[in-house]
From TrEMBL:
Protein name: Xaa-Pro dipeptidyl-peptidase
Catalytic activity reported: Hydrolyzes Xaa-Pro-|- bonds to release unblocked, N-terminal dipeptides from substrates including Ala-Pro-|-p-nitroanilide and (sequentially) Tyr-Pro-|-Phe-Pro-|-Gly-Pro-|-Ile
UniProt keyword Protease, yes or no: yes
Domain of life: Bacteria
GO biological process per UniProt: proteolysis
Length: 780
């Protein structure tokens, strides 16, 4: 096991003493022995009686042969070995499994934990236990957070519900029992359901009870008020359809705004406070973690959801406007009402006006959308697995492409699924005709027939408006996320490099997941440091201390490294040598049916070189690197290829080949409810990406798809003459991949992707000109 901490600050001794005094820890004594005892009495604050205190200390070892209780009674001298043996136990690490009793300092270093070289003076000891309080335990919390979860800050000498900053981070000093739960309805400037009135958006607020104005962690989640899964299933598209010839054309693209204005109601006398409440419920556990640390948690499902007005429009300007309307109210620039009918205004007079947006997938996507408006009050976004262009989510290079695991989904399907107003029949009947019309527009506009980039997708490409971004950005994405593929964060990251904002990137080895309860990585601490700086203007140097790029290694478990940047511009060219030069699309009808029913079986057979079921449907080329290296960015495929018809598509997979115990892509729960987010508050499951115990022969590094009619531009449909060679160049999804010595790269070319593309089983045959086919690889 290894702990990687990027949010641990190491200030000067004067700052250390001031901060320790603030949280009630002793900083002065005549000897290190006396100071160590005082430190332990503060740690074990729940045992004030002398007998209880020493009984508790006797549960720990100070040396391999002496209990901590006996050691303190005998007033033995403190050494590095004693301090760090005690430290390992306080941090919940287990002897023999995590550390060796006889070598605590070496064990600390093996675990990646910070140590002082020599503890001689009282100042040394103060520094050592300051660092210890900010060190992660085995169970995903720092030691001070563990104490807070036990109720440390409920002691009488602390004022409840007051902000404390320690090691640059807001402390868990706010009591969940005192939280305030409110609901308001924010007025927008548009009428997306065409009822003649501007849409109202339901907003649910959970905030600490305090006399200070608090900052906000805001999550725009279209799923928050429920989903209509049956409607989503009904709308899901059949993917067993043929690839068709597109008319030769170039789609014209314009910047447009589709906001429909309605009437604003006349306001009544303002209310002092919100009058509606909501039922407490666990949300995104990062927001729950922040709540007890003095941040309000705000959720809004947006237009087309239960208790809000409007229609679901899946990523267009109206949904963006719905998202930022909440920020504008929190910042004091917009009206909200106490209920949906009386139009009694209410202000967010508890808010300090500073907002961060959080969330994964669709939630993170709306954070990106909001940032590209430059809305006032939005100080930062923490966008996890976020879409930056909806075309790059549902399409690729002129092809309809499914998000991983969701064949047949599209913009209209997602709109129907998240249109939770349809679950309230009385409300639904009033807007059913408008919804049916909107759904028809979505289905037509998304154009599954061609898969080309058009105005519909241009309106949902947030990268068109990057110049408007004023908020600092933290992007988090899985390098094995085939749902929101890596083109989304990569193009966004590249596009913001010249903007005068702070920007951070975290790439992990998971799929479409959250990473805020991994013991190996202090993500929640890092976010706390970031938001304490961004939203409370605390000068904790977060923008300098947090590396610009953090990447989880795919070879070594529990290893996270800071990197100079992502997306290398320098590439090395490798010729592609295939065992044959031709492959076909169609397969036997019975086999086709089986693969449609079980696409995972198709992938297994495709990538198994010893299975010849699909031998005529693939080309395989191996590239031997022969040394340890790292791929950083987009691998580019260059092919000279022809089709025997006037249509064609090509798919590609890049593999890391060679038997190895690879890292898992889905986290394993190490301890159910193992992370206590605060005192008498919600929990999270402690989880981690573990090393596979069994070896696997390969791993998918990246993949790509291309419609040959869109070989130059996804918005430009070009002609294909049968049996004519064309030069094509297209990128695989970007990656950051550590390839160890002794392993090789394998490129697999094929046509239909049963997991992602349409499946027509057409008799299309392809031929490659090997002498004009190669791979450009961006090595670190």
């Amino acid at each position: 096991m290894k702990i990687n901490q990027f949010a641990q600050l190491h200030p000067e001794i004067t700052t250390i003493k001031n901060e320790l005094n603030t949280i009630g820890f002793p900083t002065s004594a005549t000897t290190t022995t006396a100071l160590f005892k005082n430190f332990l009495q503060t740690i074990f604050w729940q045992f004030p009686a002398t007998s209880d205190f020493y009984a508790e200390l006797d549960q720990y070892l100070a040396t391999p042969s002496t209990s901590l209780g006996r050691f303190i009674k005998d007033k033995e001298s403190i050494t590095n070995e004693v301090f760090y043996l005690v430290a390992l136990q306080l941090l919940d690490f287990e002897a023999d499994d995590d550390f060796q009793i006889e070598s605590p300092i070496a064990s600390m270093k093996n675990l990646g934990l910070f140590t002082l070289n020599n503890i001689k003076s009282t100042n040394d000891l103060v520094t050592a236990y300051y660092n210890l309080l900010n060190t992660h335990t085995k169970n995903g919390l720092t030691l001070i957070d563990k104490l807070a979860a036990q109720g440390y800050y409920t002691q009488h000498h602390f004022k409840p519900n007051q902000q404390l900053i320690f090691n640059g981070k807001a402390q868990a000093t706010f009591l969940a029992q005192n939280f305030i739960y409110e609901t308001v309805y924010v007025q927008t400037d548009f009428d997306s359901d065409f009822d003649g009135k501007n849409d109202l958006i339901k907003v649910e607020i959970t905030r600490p009870k305090t006399n200070m104005k608090v900052a906000v962690a805001y999550t725009a989640s279209p799923y928050d008020q429920g989903t209509n899964d049956l409607l989503g299933e009904k709308l899901t598209h059949n993917v067993n359809v043929s690839l068709t010839k597109k008319p030769v054309k170039k789609n014209k693209l314009m910047q447009t705004s589709s906001l429909i204005r309605g009437k604003k109601p006349l306001n009544q006398q303002p209310a002092t406070n919100a009058t509606h409440t909501h039922t407490p419920k666990p949300g995104y556990t990062l927001n729950d973690y922040l709540l007890v640390r003095g941040f309000a948690s705000v959720y809004a499902a947006g237009i087309g959801t239960v208790d809000s007005d409007g229609l679901q429009t899946c990523g267009d300007a109206q949904q963006t406007a719905s998202t930022i309307a909440v920020i504008e109210w929190l910042h004091g620039d917009r009206t909200a009402y106490t209920n949906r009918t009386d139009y009694i205004p209410v202000k967010a007079n508890w808010s300090n006006g500073n907002v961060a947006m959080t969330g994964r997938s669709y939630l993170g996507t709306l954070a990106v959308a909001a940032a590209t408006t430059g809305v006032k009050g939005l100080k930062t976004i923490i966008a996890e697995a976020a879409i930056s262009s909806w075309y790059d989510y549902y399409r690729e290079n002129g092809l309809v492409i499914a998000p991983g695991g969701f064949q047949g989904e599209d913009a209209d399907v997602l709109a129907g699924e998240t249109f939770s107003r349809s679950l309230r029949l009385g409300d639904y009947q009033k807007i059913k005709p408008a919804f049916i019309k909107e759904l028809s527009h979505l289905t037509s506009g998304q154009d599954r027939k061609t898969g080309s980039y058009n105005q519909f997708w241009h309106n949902r490409n947030y990268r068109n408006n990057l110049k408007n971004i004023k908020a600092d950005i933290m992007l988090v994405h899985g390098l094995n996320d085939w749902n929101v593929k890596l083109k989304n964060p990569a193009k966004l990251w590249r596009g913001i490099q010249q903007l005068p904002i702070s920007k951070k990137l975290i790439l992990h080895q998971g799929q479409h997941i959250y990473i805020n309860a991994f013991p190996s990585f202090d993500f929640s601490d890092l976010v706390n440091l970031w938001l304490t700086h961004e939203l409370y203007n605390i000068n904790n140097q977060a923008e300098k201390i947090i590396p610009n790029v953090i990447v989880q290694d795919n070879v070594k478990a529990d290893t996270w490294n800071s990197k100079p940047n992502w997306l290398s511009q320098t590439t090395t060219n490798f010729p592609l040598v295939f065992s044959k030069t031709q492959f076909k699309n169609e397969i036997a009808p019975q086999q086709f049916i089986k693969y449609c029913q079980n696409p995972d079986k198709w992938q297994t057979d495709l990538l198994n070189p010893r299975n010849d079921t699909l031998n005529d449907n693939r080309l395989i080329a191996n590239i031997n690197i022969n040394h340890d290296t790292t791929i950083n960015g987009n691998v580019t495929i260059k092919l000279r290829i022809k089709s025997n018809q006037d249509i064609g598509m090509i798919s590609a997979l890049l593999l890391d080949s060679g038997n190895a115990n690879r890292l898992q892509e889905s986290p394993t729960i190490l301890k159910k409810n193992g992370v206590q987010l605060g005192y008498r508050w919600y929990t999270d499951d402690l989880r981690e990406l573990l090393q596979n115990k069994q070896q696997t022969p390969f791993k998918i590094i990246s993949r790509a798809h291309l419609n040959l009619q869109n070989r130059h531009d996804s918005s430009q449909n070009e002609i294909i003459e049968p049996d004519k060679f064309y030069d094509v160049s297209f990128d695989l999804q970007p990656t950051y991949y550590h390839l160890p010595a002794g392993r090789k790269l394998t490129l697999v070319l094929y046509a239909t992707d049963f997991q992602m593309t349409i499946r027509g089983n057409q008799a299309i045959h392809y031929k490659i000109d090997q002498e004009h086919s190669s791979l450009d690889i961006p090595f670190q």
